[in-house]
Design a protein that fits this description.
Helix content is about 20%, strand content about 25%. By secondary structure, it is an alpha/beta fold. Helix 6 (about 410-425) packs parallel to helix 7 (about 460-475). It is globular and about 60 Å long.
Length: about 525
Amino acid sequence: MQRRFRTPLLAVLAALATAASAILTLATPALAAGPTAAFTKTSDWGTGWEGRFTITNGGPSTITGWQVAFTLPAGTTLGSYWDATVSSVGQRHTFTNRSWNGAVAPGASVSFGFLATGAGSPTDCTLNGAPCGGGTPTTPPTTTAPPTTAPPTTAPPTTAPPTTPPPTTPPPTTPPGGGLPKHALIGYLHASFANGAGYLRMADVPADWDIVNLAFGEPTSVTSGDIRFQLCPVTECPTVETEAEFTAAIRAKQQQGKKVLLSIGGQNGQVQLTTTAARDTFVRSVSAIIDRYGLNGLDIDFEGHSLYLNTGDTDFRNPTTPVVVNLISAIRTLKQRYGAGFVLTMAPETFFVQLGYQFYGSGPWGGQDPRAGSYLPVIYALRDDLTVLHVQDYNSGPIVGLDNQYHTMGSADFHIAMTDMLLAGFPVAGNANAVFPALREDQVAFGAPSSTSAGNGYLAPAGVQQAVTCLVKGQNCGGYTPRSGTNPNFRGLMTWSINWDRFYSWEFRLSHGPFLKALP
């Protein structure tokens, strides 16, 4: 799935305008041959700051991947980050490229950003093992790299999407509708690729999974809106079933009351509906896939740069940015076409939802990441059509909760605080006159990695169940008191992924399936 992820203090916004001029440069790519990484403090509000590294390729050949490592002094801590993954040992932080920005052509540049608290600045910076100011790069170390797979950001198929659109002939009957169990188990199935977890045939997916999200439908280009889906190629997945067997297995799941959805996006599937033409192509191509396999609905797993807010687009209740407006319109059209039985889920990262409590878009004075909180207008506009929102509580930097304290992934506290924000509602960017309203309990679940290999932020079953027990019953909440009170209709748990869960002997399914069903 995944997604870009990342965090800061409520009182900083007023200081951003005056702080934006404070820029600290640690390396200047123009003065050095070969690859360089230049650091700037783009904002500084005293108790914290926003930083950006720009990797510039001053050499003669394309860089195919990069890692920037640096040390923060004691008393300065890393917060949210974007456009990279991170692995930390003490105060040493290693940022690694995402799939879409690893290749840097000669003369080109890419960047990543992050937030920090404290007054210190990065020191001892290296780019692929060489000094950030220039030098001969070495092979990026593998000991500090984060997991190579991650929830809805794991690598999709290595083969190109088909050059011809899928059939548009609808199935003989409307995709089955119907309800979900009160507490549902939701998982992603690597249907179009294998990766380290291996391929799993649809017919072999255990019945415990109430919603199966097929990963992934991806566009032919970022702005085309033309979504394609294909089963994993035999060359990558020797055990892949035929399309007829795959479709028959979907029907069998549906007859058991399960829902099978097309998940669009993931880490590599950047989708920007910048025009109404792209919007209409999106509707046609997605409908074709849903009809082809008789699916129950759609999962929106937009990550990377799929969603953002143009400068001046500051009200989540009345968005004006085309990529947001056109996505809302497209989903409404699909919902209207398929009717009340159409299942709609979303799997945003915390950066695009809960970070909106502090920052929304580029902010009133500009300078912030325009993607901060950018899912909020989509969720708000589609709140009456949304079946389940399951935010990815992983691959995330620390996020401030409703208690105005930072919460860190990989703990029950993080799941409780992040989910409570959706169940209680919150002012966007600290504006008491712009409150994102609470969702219904049955619309809210949370996502957790199924294993240590599935994504950063893994938490053992006991911790996940502690979080659910707190949210549902108000018990065993630790140091955080949910503002939403008890939530007996809390929908359940999502995981990346079903394949990784099988790889680890079904720990997630066997632990949480019976647990959810035993809840009142």
